[in-house]
Amino acid sequence: MSEEKIAIIGGTGDLGFGLALRWARAGVQVIIGSRDETKAKEAVQRLQKALDAHAPTESSRISVSGLENAKAAAQASILVLAVPISAQVAILKSIRGSLGNAILVDATVPLAAALGGKPTRMLRLWQGSAAEQARELVPAATPVLAAFHNVSAEALQDLSVTPECDILVCGDDEAAKQTLFRLVKLIPGLRPIDAGPLEMSGIVEGITALLISVNRRYRVHHSGIRITGLDLKA
Amino acid sequence: MSEEKIAIIGGTGDLGFGLALRWARAGVQVIIGSRDETKAKEAVQRLQKALDAHAPTESSRISVSGLENAKAAAQASILVLAVPISAQVAILKSIRGSLGNAILVDATVPLAAALGGKPTRMLRLWQGSAAEQARELVPAATPVLAAFHNVSAEALQDLSVTPECDILVCGDDEAAKQTLFRLVKLIPGLRPIDAGPLEMSGIVEGITALLISVNRRYRVHHSGIRITGLDLKA
After folding, report:
1. Chain B stretch 182-201, residues whose beta carbon is closer than 8 A to a beta carbon of chain A
2. Fewest 10 Å CB contacts: which of A25, A233, B142, B184?
3. pLDDT band at B233 (very low <50, low <70, confident <90, very high)
């Protein structure tokens, strides 16, 4: 079992729940965070059921709990923020006093849908990206990474599917990146790629709108991306 | 042999020359355009030499000529604009009177390097993207597509390598897209993907900066992207 304890802020939503499910299955300690602790605990039950149905032998060793977001943040060594852009600022303000030494991984995508626009269009945030907006809102000592924007939430939630996607990770803290890389590698089908500093995150967020456009054109739900030409082992 | 005649505006540069080489090899009629006709003709000789060295049996059936940009444009059914962003506006103004019914494929990437900045940073153009800037500069009847931003120019120029990259194509003219798709498929290793309307091109252009960042981090030269989860034949 990994020594890391991951809190998924917004763990009842599609992306957050999918990540919680996959990490729980891999034996990582997961805390599902929600604004409403009752909903968090319901998500834990839903997760347990999904694992029981699909992988009963693995479900005995999982460690998942459900807590209100700030309590979840206080107990974790890594937080993944998987919330709609419309909720990002308020939720970060509600948890930033509880971060301790944790790494914050922002997965927020500023889709224009948040303001009633198209999901294939992006909002242009003053800071450059949702992740850079998150960077401003948490203590300077908190390492902030951007990741998980491009993987299909639907694929993550369906244990009969192996997601096929590279996880482009942006950030300015190399040690935090290495920690996240190890955790990404625990989920079959995902491969972490170092995409550079946090200032690259706006491009990675934009790829989500591109994949939504591709999903529509090709009538699929699971499109993702792979970086080619890297000659990486494993 | 394809009935299309492709003019590569900026065909003496890395990306343009690489595309000219690959299409010529595939039997497509190619015109290398340059601001300087002498340079265009030198590039034709260079192309012929590269094919002679690598694939002598194929070099006999190629059809490549070199012309000044506007003359090249006037003779082609498709133009690929493969010029630095700093030259894009001036060159488009110089050829827009010669476009006839041709399709314009913009491959320009607005990297901050054009103003002395980092090649991993983008310029934010008023129109949203270089391709949308091109759209403004040519007649309304000219179909404008965006493509070829992400493929490694180095890989295209090295005939011992098969490039491994999807070509994300943006545009608002479906018939033009289908024409370009056919031409992309003639180059082994490239796969055309419909990325949606021209307004998505800013994201596709941005992926180039991301790949430059990845190339640096991983000390490679040929990184590219593939879209996964499409279940396409061939």
Report:
1. 193-196, 199-200
2. A233
3. low
